[in-house]
Amino acid sequence: MDFLQISLVLVVLLILAIPMGRYLALAFSLTTTRLDRVFGGVENVIYKISGIRVADMTWKQYAAGVLMSNIAMVAIAYLLLRLQGFLPGNPNNIGAMEPLLSFNTAVSFLTNTNLQHYSGESGLSYLSQMMVIIFLMFTTPATGIAVAMAFMRGLTGQRSIGNFYVDLIRSHTRVLIPLAMIVTLLLVSQGVPQTMEPTATATTISGTEQQIARGPVASLVSIKHLGTNGGGFFGVNSSHPFENPTPLSNVIEILSMFLIPASLPFVFGFMAKSRKQGWVIFGAMGMMFLAFLITAYTAEVNGNPALERAGLSQLMGSMEGKEVRFGIAQSALFTAVTTAATTGTVNNMHDTLTPLGGLVPLGEMMLNSVFGGDGVGTVNILMYAILAVFLAGLMVGRTPEFLGRKIEGREMKLIAIAILVHPLIILAPTAIALATEMGTAGISNPGFHGISQVLYEFTSSAANNGSGFEGLGDNTPFWNISTGLVMLFGRYVSIIAMLAVAGSLIAKTPVPETLGTLRTDNSVFLMILIATVVIVGALTFLPVLALGPIAEWLTIR
Amino acid sequence: MSRTRTVALPKDLYQRAFVDSFKKLDPRVMMKNPVMFVVEVGFVITLLLTFFPHLFGGASDPFYNGVVSLILFVTILFANFAEALAEGRGKAQAESLKKTKQDTKARRLQKDGTIQMISSTELRKGDIVIVETGELIPSDGEIIEGVASVDESAITGESAPVIKESGGDFSSVTGGTRVVSDRIRIRVTTDPGESFLDRMISLVEGAKRQKTPNEIALNTLLVSLTLIFLIVCTTLLPIATYVNAAIPIATLIALLVCLIPTTIGGLLSAIGIAGMDRVTQFNVIAMSGKAVEASGDINTIILDKTGTITHGNRMAAEFVTVGKTKQEDLNRAAAQSSVYDETPEGRSVIELAKKQGLASSELELPHSEGVEFRAETRMSGTNFANGVQIRKGAVDAIKKHVSEQGGKIPSDLEEKANRIATAGGTPLAVAEGNSILGLIYLKDTVKPGMRERFEELRRMGIRTVMCTGDNPLTAATIAREAGVDDFVAEAKPEDKIALIRKEQAAGKLVAMTGDGTNDAPALAQADVGLAMNSGTVAAKEAANMVDLDSDPTKIIEVVAIGKQLLMTHGALTTFSIANDVAKYFAIIPAMFMLAIPQMGALNIMSLATPQSAILSALIFNAIIIPILIPLAMKGVKYTPMSATKLLSRNLVIYGLGGILVPFVGIKLIDLVLVALNLV
Fold first, then answer.
1. Which of A519, B206, B281, B616 could bridge to B669 as Cys pair (CB 3.0-4.6 Å)?
2. Does B392 count as an annotated binding residue?
3. Best residue in A356, A390, A396, A553 to probe B by mutation, most B CBs within 10 Å?
4. What is the rounded distance in angstroms from the CA atom of residue A154 to the CA atom of residue A156?
5. pLDDT for A251-265, tens place per residue?
6. Would you list the domain boundaries of chain B?
7. Across the interface, which of B232, B507, B581 has its CB nearest the CB of A427?
8. Range of the domain at A183
9. Complex-level ipTM
10. What is the three-class DSSP state of B162?
11. pTM of the predicted model, to two decimals?
12. Searching chain A, which residue's CA lies closest to the CA of residue B583?
């Protein structure tokens, strides 16, 4: 039954992802398409109003566009949070958010991380919810999709890497807004509230009064997942019955957060004019995902041996921190998907996952390329693909080339920066946190689990995931500053480095394919790609994982 | 295959490499190799810990620190030894060349016509010198007057002297070679220190060795991996301290050294030097490592027909009778017409006639005299004592010759001659007296084995294009026979450049060979230009490789060497990185087993003790370097096949092997350590 549930969801995902890939390829085409007739009118008005010149950009212009627009966004977000007490749309009279928490919150939503160190209901005014949270929930995945499009154009040698502003607008008009509307309606059909009415007051059977929070939940939950954002309307995120009432809504949420990341490899296939190429990238990510999913499911379904020894039945698996309406299968699947797609929404508490079950979200975020967040995940796996091409390409006795473009010193330098930054911004702050009082003070469960808590917080920040292991007292200056910086480095270093790679590759004369060319569209390359991700990406973290979840697992076995 | 310049590895080479590997311990030298530099820093730290175990606070086992330190020291020595050995071979070659470059005396011709004896080092570009029999040519130059046979064995290893003469494509001479006959006047073309010999010495010596583009890219990857593991290991200390799992500094350094790619890091420069050296041993001088590497990337090879694909001299392939002539008569007349013909063509006629059963006695022609080929008559032959004249020559010329003597032209002559021409051959008519007996079918023959070579290239994904001045028909025939992929007929030198540019515009890398001055622009344009040593100075300067044996087909081997160089880099990098998997399984449980006994479950190799596990991994990490030195020097075996097959093969050997071998190796070392009671 569990198997059927899980495989059904994955099959539906695949059925949706392929046409979605074709649609995205068309939507972001550099040439005129029939979609322009549908969306062109609105888009042209937007271009005119905002003074956007629709011309091809160099990678530097593109990167500048990303940075400038994102700096503007974070500045607006920060000011709104600081000034929310004086601004309208604040019926509950919520005061200004303190500076460091504002910094952390603004950065968190800007980087598509949605790490929440504040408490949603009491920390934000309605205006902040709409102008900061929901606004960024649309613009950041749009930025990610734009960057992915530019990167893939560079790799496949299109006319140019495109125009950032055009890609940004199109992500909204052609992808996120229409999809969000559909998903919102689907969620409403499952009973997710969508109302502007104030908090309801109910009288319980015992006669006491209960305040039931509600609001425009469905619209936020839809973009929360579609944009791989993850910041929930309610504190407990998608475990809350109003955010995720039924197993079907659970499936809708899983599908909507995986839809764009899973369809981007197919976009790559279309751009490269080689469907097989798209399948190889999808296959590598898919196989890694399955391995993680199976690990998580097995670990959870087998229950917690420590609790079993304490006399608690583990027949249903490890149900601590899970919702009965989802059970193990839907919880494990949700956990595997939310950290693969680096959404960070949760339908169960990751802190109470069994050690190996908790290893899965950690591992997926460390790799940061098992589908990954909107756009950036694809960029990451393609970066690993370039690395794999470099190693394997030399072995066939030629200067390595990917899709006819030579991978040389400049590309390797840029990739070196990207693969270096990820472990650096996870391990260095983890070490600092564990070595200092300001870091260890927040840990609720010392010992191996404490390592996992800290490691999870920084991994989640670096991968721009945003889910928390919870149990960590993280609204302190130390955590706000450290995770804020980690989120910024985690997002922008690799975005800029990869745009530079795209700019460098697009300028190269393509090398024709011959018998002597390394093929990157077959199963051999798929295996090399997975091996590269695992050996370069994962083994780096093995020592620290050994001290965290693995040690915990071994000691409670 | 041509003969290779073999430099054996004598004992003193090993001795010198051994000494050099200590000299290279100098941190200023080690800095150039960041991976091994990290190992050296680790060595210094563990050495300090051996004598001052409390240096970083806490107690540590001085004996254990000492052992780790020693293994690290040996690791560095092994890597240095590999590099020194590779360099040593080059140095040995350079020294033998330097012996040639003695300070010779030169006779410089002054402006007033007098001769001044000066040292060869004082010669400047443009000076004119005179060299006589038995003297060494003092500098690179061009013969402006005279013909001489020159012994170039000092450079080419070829003992037979070559003829050099002024004008044309054989006018360049190299400094350090010896004139064995005659007297020549030479215009010096290089300043001191820039001569061919100088460049060759510095190249084989590897003194100014520049890293190749792929080596730079690979080095970037290795440095970033090293930095990653540096981060991993330094952060592990505070993280482990948090759960009270104290890690000895020496163990942490051992983990770091095992994880960073020391295998490839230690062998990287040796592979590069050895790759260049393989080219040199093959008697090809590559002006840069970049050129060697580029040859591995070649997509198209442009080859001259004459001299490269074919022997370059037309050979008699068949005797075709006309009219009612008997075959034996034609065979005899053809052979007799060639008795005085010393050209390869003439000799091939006699050879063919003999092969077809002509008695040698028929060729003893007393009192006859030979008629030499002249441009006006376009025929040659033999005049017998009895007045009979036998002629062979161009069909038109013979027709004219026979008509003049009142003879008739056989009706089928024209048709048969055309048939030969169509087939790509050259027809020569044979006349005895005033009658035409038949035709000699002259054919430019393809060198044996060329077809197979081109087939090989095709399997490597390389296209061959033949360039020839012949007409399209002849060219097509030879192209078909040789099995080249494409040909350009009636090609002029500028066509070659155009062809190269066209291929390059399509993103292809082009290699070509050439020797003449008019080849120079094309040689410069090509990504890999291989000039013949017998060629002109201009050609040699434009090219980025010079073949000392002047064998144009060598370009094919150079491609293979280039590929091998890249493959060796790739294979050993993959092996090195794949090794990490086993090392993790050896060291991680060992590191934490004392603090967390349950970690023993990860000790899947069931290594005896934590210390033996760490030392085994470290020892494996060290000894794998010398084990792989022969492979680094020889290069990964390369057989032409498609990239997909090649990749699968190398992946199994170096990828899968790289994962499995250390599991076996570490376990074995652990068993030995236990057996020797060392741990």
1. B616
2. yes
3. A396
4. 6
5. 999 999 999 999 999
6. 11-92+205-281+564-676, 297-309+447-548, 313-445
7. B232
8. 2-201+211-271
9. 0.92
10. strand
11. 0.87
12. A539
